[in-house]
Structure formats: structure tokens, C-alpha cells
Here is the input.
Amino acid sequence: MADKKRIGRQTPTASYILPYKKTISKEAVKLYELSGQKLFDWQKNVLNDLMAVNQANEWIHMQFGGSVPRQNGKNEIIATRELYGLCNGEKILHTAHLADTSHKAWERLMYLVEQSELPVKSSLKTKGGEKIVIDGGGYIDFRTRTSSGGRGGSYDTVIVDEAQEYTEEQDSALSYTLTASKNPQIILFGTPPDPDTAGTVFTDFRNKTLAGENEDTGWIEWSVSKVTDNKDIEAWYETNPSLGLLFSERNIRAQTSKDQLLFNIERLGYWVEYNLKSAISEIEWDALCEKKQPQLIGDLYVGIKYNVEFVSANPTGDLHLGHAKGAAVGDSICRIMNAAGYDVTKEYYINDAGNQITNLALSLYARYLQALGQERQLPEDGYYGKDIIQIAESIKNEYGDKFAHVDEKEAIAYSRSIGTEHELQKIKDILKEFRVVHDVWFSETSLYAENKIEPTIQRLKDQGYTYEAEGALWFKSTEFDDDKDRVLIKSDGSYTYLTPDIAYHLNKLDRGYEYLVDLLGADHHGYINRMKAAIQALGYNADQLNIDIMQMVRMVENGEVVKMSKRTGNAVTIKDLIDDIGVDASRYFFVSKAASSPFDFDLGLAKSKSNDNPVYYAQYAHARMCSIERQAQTVGIEVADHYELLTHPKEIELVKHINEFRNEIVESAKQRAPHKIANYIQRLAQLFHSFYNDCYVIDEANRELSSQRLSLVRATQITLKNALNLIGVSAPEKM
Here is the structure.
């Protein structure tokens, strides 16, 4: 007789289940199996507990949670429960952390419904607004979680998928959706959260339920109780119920190269007991003792594709103060999001199809004719800068009077092309000098050339969100909380500026980005509602578009507002800032305050070499650390790999702040708030200076203590350099 195939543990490693005599799970299982698929024993066991009822057929567990490592098949449990609810007239809300996850859940359930030949009344597959309605009154909405998601709806059952990302704010929004139900149930399923995960509800729910503190609540999990060797096969079988059923040892073995903690969380179901107030552990100290600067690339958010558009100034002249702020803030946001593990694309939208470009072309053509000695007036709204004169001179030097003898339309078209190319290259060059490099430069003209606008309008028409009035085509944006409807096509047949913008945002979504971020100036505040309305009308979730408004910045020196460049007599440019105070100070000051708040850029302070200057203070701290390391090298003191002598309060305080760095990155990324990193830097520099003043590092009479303190200096130096890099600021080794 052949040996019986080994499979993973079919019963939970930990659970809290209320006593019951009856379960209706068999009805749900039958529905699921109508699709031709089968459930595993462990999945049926979970459903038994989940669907336990009392004599009145009310749920024993009004709240039920569970955790199982990834890819074991928890989604089939959820789908089975949803099938039962649909066929029994329940109103269900399925929420997920990401729109893509929510959409895949809809696809999964829709497949089961179709295979089971259930009587579907209607189905909506619009991404971010999916729905299934069954004859008889049962229906399910699929939604991406937000702080307001679910408000206004009334449900019998709420499914919280990927519950490790479930926040208190979201829980508050959903808590009222079950109030009217006679037999409500909320179900939370996920994996143990990473220490950096923002969601806290899942962990609190688990801990209180296992402790018996929650009423009418159940819990199941498969997990290890402590960090376990990645290659411990027994632990694999103990924590993965579908091992040997859905996947093999070979599949898990391919994952063992992962970070040990991450492997334990995702594959072995380990719950991190993490307390920021706890004593420093050996593992934490080891993490501080890195011998080289680590890359800040995580996998917490791998697969989440973001498009971040910033600066996007018209290519008609120099980038000024507001553009500089947008460049510094936008680039820092992207650096931080990349560090947190997001897949981020930096994009610049080239406004090369509007009146500004037409005026640029006319201005350049006029200057070209003037360079040839001909009289030609610049247009009323023309561009009078020296760069236009210089471009005109270069055309004359290369082509002579060629364009004075061709059709004027052809000459202006060439002027348009060469002028835009020149101005755009100038923008790219100055941004590069400012340490900002975009991944994509998207031309507005391409929307017309590739026929992207008309299909977008047609899509809005097909969805029923347009109408004609006063000879114009209108968008029904008020149906999505805009204050008034918006014109798409004017009575003269031309587009409003909004129309190509809608097509552009649709193009970005069509390119596969799940979330879009626009960084815009203060004058674009009214833009938010109309563009979010358009996104929803096109079938996407409003939360997939994020528009961050950056408030005005004033340049001041000696208490006086600086409006003009000393070099040119025109408005202050990025070039002026770089020449006057440098890239480091410019970028640091722009991100040091929340972008949504107006602030005064103190030019005098940015130039000063004092502790009052925050960038100088931080860079000096880094230079001092490097100096200490050089000094240690001269006397033969090396970095220690043990730390039992580090007990001074200033040492412990500094270590704890270093250990907060990863959390700070994650929070800053989620909120798109680079000022949080700037605040972290200032605190780190402050704590280091305080430590250095109280704790003598290089002491040849006490070399062991010196060696251990040197390890702390090294850890601080690595962290500070990484933090400065996140906002595009250098970390000098000498000052």
C-alpha cells in the first residue's frame, strides 16, 4: 500500500470558538460545490464555526476573524459564505484594501455564481464599483476601503478582506452599516500584519478575542508562536493547512530566501509582538550594526503601481519658486514611496497643445524675423524673455532667412516645434541639477495625435453622463458631488481644458496604474471634485485619484519679501536658488513644512552656518559622525558586535529613534508627507548631539565601551544618510 500523502494541519493552531449545537455551513458548501469545485476539510471546519447558529437561527459569532498564511485558500471560505448570503437574501458588503483585490474577489464570486447557474438579476463590473444581484433580493457590493467607504449603506454582512490593513478610521466608517440588520455578521480575514502596517484593528480584534474579552466573537488561526527557522519543514506543515493540497514543499522552499521575519509572517503566520516602549532586543541591535549602507527597498507594497505627476509647468520659460517647491516635494514623495516598496513612476505632463505654446511659437517667429532685420510685432500675450531671442538667433545662424520665404504656417509650426523642444530641454536640465529626474514625459499633443480624446467623450456618453445644452456638450459632474456640471465641448466645437485632462487621466489608468497622484498648485483647488467626478464616471473608484494641493511659498530675506531675481530682475527661479543657496538647502527648506501649508522661505536662514539652520544642523551632525569614525580608525578602535555596556539613557533614546525610521518611512509614504522625514532628521540630529555631549565616544582607556559606542555612531550615520537621501539632500563627510 502506498504511503498516505502528507498534508498540512487541518485544525487551527489557536482558536476561540463559542459553544454551539448547530451550523448551517453544509448548505453553503453544497452551493459552492455546484460550481464543480471542492473545499478542503480545514475550510469546511472553519465554515462550521463561522456559520454556527442558535435556536433562532442567529449567528453565534456576530464577529468572526481568522488568519492563515498566504495562498492557502482563505478566499474560498469567504466566497462560500458570500454564496450562501446571496441565495438567502442577504445584503453584503465586501471590502478590500486595494481596488484590484476587490475586483478579483468580484471575478472569483461571479465565476462561482455562473458555474452554479444561480439566477443573476444584474451584475456591475465597473472597477471600484462592482456588484452582483440575485433574484430574490440578495446582493453584494465590492468596495475599496476608505475613511468614508460604506457610509450611507445598510448591510447584513460585512466582509473585511486583507484585514491586516484595516484601520480604526475605516472601522469607524463601516461600524454603522450593520445597525439596521436583524442578524448582522462582520467577518475579518487576513494575514498577520507587518510591524509597519498601519492597520491596528485586526491585531486588537485577535488579541481581545483570544483573551475572551470580546462578546459574540470567534477566532481561528494557523501560526507559529515564535520566530522559526525558514527551513523548518515541520513548521511549514503546522501552519499551512493546504500544503500538500494546493502547493508543495518545493513551492515553500523557493520562498525561504526571504527575510526571516517576513517569511515567518507571510508563510508561517507569525504575529509580531512589537512594542515601541520595549527594551532594545538583540535582533534590533544587530540591525543597527550594518557594515554598509542598506538599500531602502521594501516589499511591503510591491505590486501597487502609483503614477505621481508633479511640476508639469508649461514649456514656455524658466521654472519659478512654486515649481521649485513642487519639484522638491514631488521628488521626495516618490523617493519615500519607493523606499516603502511602492512601484512609483514619476511623470511630467507637457502642456504643449494650448494657447501658451501658440504664443510661444508666434513670439519666436517674430524674434526670428526681427533677427533678420524685419519688422514684426510680438503677440499681445507673447514671451519677451532673452531665451526667445537666443533661440531665434540660433535658427538664423543655422538656416539663414529660409523661414522668411516659406509659408507662414510652416514657419510658425517649425517655431512651435523648436521652441517647445528648447524650453523643454531647459526644464529637464535645471530639474536634473535640482536632483529631479522624471521617468515619463507625456505630451498633451499625443492625446490628439493618437485619438485619445474622442473615445473618452464617447465613453462618458455611453455611460449616460453627458447632455447637450446651449450648443455645448456638458458633463454631469454634479452626480458625483461636484458643485456644478462642466462643459466638455464648447458651442464653437473646441474642447475645454478639462476634456484633454480627463483623457489624460484615463490614459494613465489604462497604462496599468492603480493609483494616480497629482501635485498641483493652490489655484487648482476647484479642480479636485470635477476630476474625481470624471474618474468615477469612467468606471473607477474616486480614491484611485489623489490630488494634493501645495500652498504658496514666499521668499523672504531680512524680513522683506523677495519677488525679483537679482540676476535677471524677473521672478525668482530654481536657477537663482541653486546659485544663491545650493540644492541641499533649497530642497530641505521646501520639504521641511507640510506642503498643504503656506510658509515663508527664509533666505538668510538658509545661507547661515549655524544650528538655527536645520539643514546645516543635520549635515554637521553627519560630518561629526564621520569625523568620529576617522578618529577611531587612527587609534585602532573598531565597531563592536555586542552592546551590553550601552545603558546610558541618551544611548537608549537614540537607539529607539533609529528603530523608528522604518515606521516613519511607511507613514510618510502613506500620507505623502516628506516633512515627516525632515522632522525625523532634526530629531535624530538633536539626539545624536545630546548623546555626543554626554557620552565620550573615543576613550583609549576604555576601548570596549568606545567600540560599542562607535557601533551606535555608525548606526546613526547610516540612518541619517538614508533619511537625507529620501528628501534629495546630500550627507557630507566633512564640513
Q: What stands out?
A: The two ends are 78 Å apart (CA to CA). Residues 207 and 213 are 9 Å apart (CA to CA). DSSP finds 25 helices and 22 strands in the chain. The longest strand covers residues 343-350.
